[in-house]
């Protein structure tokens, strides 16, 4: 979801080439070190700089990442810099080109790339156990409450979400020719103006925007309508995973700590932190982030955080820890992609070895709930 350009992080971004070089040198220097007992990281590890592609702009969707910066979790994990790059972007092309090391993406985008391009990509963990995608409509308008209601309707879909929308149609046996798709941005005004019947949205974002504008809304949630795949996935190339397991374990550990803070810190503190990072990104945006989206709304931000927690915290993560993906959920994800026309296996799409090792070494990290 997003604006039209990458927004640099408030700290220095550095050149990608320098980042890769620094990371490679650091790994070569510490490649033979033993893992510290119970830490999940190497003693005095130095992993240099890595780049992480965000799927969306710097708002509450990345509150855990902001805590990882603010509370020094990336630093203590051994990183000189973690460069967060704003979307919208699935990260697939950038992973394959080597311009980023990690992408926060989704199972449909990664799965489609594997199925259609034989892309050497893996999901190693997932922030959202339930994807937040929805077809948003007005309750007193098209009121799209079932997949069948999409037939004959005009749906606004962003370019970066086209594959995700295709997954919903295919999973429910709906011919693309039976739905009129029009390109839209991420501003839901066309829906409120009744220029479209439905609008591709996030439950945690545009759905709240329209609700706060005073409209009664209907959500056709993907996760409940044939597409129950994971999202905000930590995705990497097969080669990077094979060559940098210790680095990725350190990175994921810092992320777990950051997202744990989202659940344990007061909501008003998290909202203030998100606002700080959002405003910094807006100030550095060449396209004028605030001009496009306006000042961050604290009320909506808190609502978004609460909605995210419902997608993140499930009985499985409460038992096994953040970012874990159960065997059952992996299979459900693969099945939903197959229903959408993307034939991948669990082994093609997932490798959760590192996240499992982290919790085996640091079982205290499982307890993210207050």
Walk me through what this model shows.
With 370 residues, the protein is α/β, with parallel strands linked by helices. Mean pLDDT is 88; it is low at 1-42. It is built from 17 helices and 10 strands.
Features:
370 residues, 5-stranded mixed beta sheet, single chain, alpha/beta, disordered N terminus, 15% strand
The residue-averaged pLDDT reads 88
The chain-level structural class is alpha/beta
Question: What radius of gyration results from the CA coordinates?
Answer: 20 Å
Question: What gross morphology would you assign?
Answer: globular
Sheet with most strands: 5 strands, mixed
Helix-strand sequence: HEHHEHEHEEEHEHEHEEHHHHHHHHH
Strand order of the largest sheet: 2-1-3-10-4
**Low-confidence runs of at least 5 consecutive residues:** 1-42
- Spatial gap, N to C terminus: 30 Å
Number of strands: 10
Number of H/I helices = 17
Strand content: 15-25%
């Amino acid at each position: 979801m997003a604006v039209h350009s990458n927004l640099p992080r408030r700290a220095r971004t550095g050149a990608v080439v320098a980042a890769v070089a620094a990371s490679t040198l650091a790994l070569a220097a510490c490649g033979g070190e033993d893992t510290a007992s119970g830490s999940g990281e190497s003693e005095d590890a130095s992993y240099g700089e890595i780049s992480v592609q965000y799927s969306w702009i710097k708002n509450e969707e990345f509150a855990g990442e902001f805590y990882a910066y603010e509370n020094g979790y990336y630093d203590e994990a051994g990183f000189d810099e973690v460069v967060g790059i704003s979307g919208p972007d699935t990260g697939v092309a950038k992973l394959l080109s080597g311009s980023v090391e990690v992408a926060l993406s989704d199972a449909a985008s990664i799965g489609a790339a594997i199925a259609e391009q034989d892309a050497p990509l893996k999901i190693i963990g997932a922030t959202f156990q339930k994807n937040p995608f929805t077809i948003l409509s007005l309750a007193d308008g098209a009121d799209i409450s079932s997949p069948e209601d999409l037939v004959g309707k005009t749906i606004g879909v962003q370019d970066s979400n086209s594959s995700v929308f295709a997954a919903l149609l295919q999973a429910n046996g709906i011919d693309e020719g039976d739905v009129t798709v029009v390109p839209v941005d991420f501003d839901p005004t066309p829906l409120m103006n009744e220029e479209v019947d439905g609008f591709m949205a996030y439950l945690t974002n545009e759905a709240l925007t329209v609700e706060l504008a005073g409209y009664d809304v209907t959500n056709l949630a993907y996760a409940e309508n044939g597409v129950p795949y994971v999202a905000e996935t930590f995705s990497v190339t097969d080669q990077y995973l094979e060559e940098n397991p210790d680095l990725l374990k350190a990175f994921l550990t810092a992320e777990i700590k950051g997202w744990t803070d989202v659940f344990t810190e007061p909501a008003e503190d998290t909202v203030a932190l998100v606002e700080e990072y959002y405003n910094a990104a807006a100030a550095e945006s060449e396209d004028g982030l605030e001009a496009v989206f306006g000042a961050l709304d604290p009320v909506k931000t808190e609502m978004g955080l609460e909605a995210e927690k419902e997608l993140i915290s499930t009985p499985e993560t409460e038992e096994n820890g953040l970012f874990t993906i159960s065997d059952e959920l992996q299979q459900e994800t693969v099945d939903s992609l197959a229903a959408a026309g993307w034939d991948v296996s669990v082994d093609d799409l997932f490798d959760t070895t590192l996240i499992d090792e982290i919790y085996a070494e640091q079982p205290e990290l499982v307890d993210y709930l207050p």
